Automatic annotation (TrEMBL):
<protein>
    <recommendedName>
        <fullName>60S ribosomal protein L13</fullName>
    </recommendedName>
</protein>
<dbReference type="GO" id="GO:0006412">
    <property type="term" value="P:translation"/>
</dbReference>
<dbReference type="GO" id="GO:0022625">
    <property type="term" value="C:cytosolic large ribosomal subunit"/>
</dbReference>
<dbReference type="Pfam" id="PF01294">
    <property type="entry name" value="Ribosomal_L13e"/>
</dbReference>
<comment type="similarity">
    <text>Belongs to the eukaryotic ribosomal protein eL13 family.</text>
</comment>
<keyword id="KW-0687">Ribonucleoprotein</keyword>
<feature type="region of interest" description="Disordered">
    <location>
        <begin position="181"/>
        <end position="209"/>
    </location>
</feature>
<dbReference type="GO" id="GO:0003723">
    <property type="term" value="F:RNA binding"/>
</dbReference>
<dbReference type="GO" id="GO:0003735">
    <property type="term" value="F:structural constituent of ribosome"/>
</dbReference>
<dbReference type="InterPro" id="IPR001380">
    <property type="entry name" value="Ribosomal_eL13"/>
</dbReference>
<feature type="compositionally biased region" description="Basic and acidic residues">
    <location>
        <begin position="187"/>
        <end position="209"/>
    </location>
</feature>
<keyword id="KW-0689">Ribosomal protein</keyword>
<dbReference type="InterPro" id="IPR018256">
    <property type="entry name" value="Ribosomal_eL13_CS"/>
</dbReference>
Length: 209
């Protein structure tokens, strides 16, 4: 066998019924058709409502991906307030709300508020109970047939690439290392400089008295 000393013997399981336990995906084409039929049935059951909810544009996490925008879970309360929409009213018209997310910049707040405003301009809310014209179907001749919200309100590009241009003489003479070190030193010594300036002003006031 080739085994020596007091070691554990190999216990290789070569007599298992492997064919019965193997997992294959031969039903993938059929599953694809099943999912497509389910989406079509769901869209038909929704009637005139959008097939997908409006989603906010959020930044991807980490330094590697934060230049890209993607769909988020829901809009913040600040974004709803900027768009003039209440929380319950937003959920009623298909605008999801995420109370945990926070806006950390004016750009994201304005971007998502504008998305809500554009969505409200295009959406048409039909009343559940029409008391005036009871029993009559509403006039839908002017209603847009667009139900794909993601296509109607796409997520914008997170970063617009700058066009190539020639390097200026000032940029050639500038030194990135020296600029960073100067800014770092100014930030570090800001407190001492402010204290020194304050002391000079107090001494000047005392000398005038």
């Amino acid at each position: 066998m080739g085994f020596r000393h007091n070691n554990v013997l190999h216990n290789n399981h070569f007599r298992k019924d492997w064919q019965r336990r193997v997992k294959v995906w031969f039903d993938q084409p059929g599953s694809k058709k099943t999912r497509r039929n389910a989406r079509q049935a769901k869209a038909a059951a929704l009637g005139l409502r959008p097939t997908k909810a409006l989603r906010p544009a959020v930044r991807c996490p980490t330094l590697k991906y934060n230049t890209k925008l993607r769909e988020g879970r829901g809009f913040t309360l600040e974004e709803l307030k900027a768009a003039g929409l209440r929380k319950k009213e937003a959920r009623a018209i298909g605008v999801p709300v995420d109370h945990r997310r926070r806006n950390k910049s004016e750009e994201s707040l304005k971007l998502n508020a504008d998305r809500i405003k554009a969505y409200r301009e295009r959406i048409i809310v039909l009343p559940r109970r029409n008391k005036k014209n009871k029993g009559q179907a509403p006039d839908l001749s002017n209603v847009s047939s667009t139900r794909d919200v993601a296509a109607a309100f796409p997520i914008p590009a997170g970063l617009v690439a700058e066009a190539p241009r020639a390097i200026t003489a000032e940029e050639k003479e500038a030194t990135a290392f020296r600029t960073l070190r100067t800014a770092r030193a100014a930030h570090r010594n800001e407190g001492m400089r402010a204290a020194r300036q304050k002391k000079k002003e107090e001494e000047a006031k005392d000398s005038k008295k």
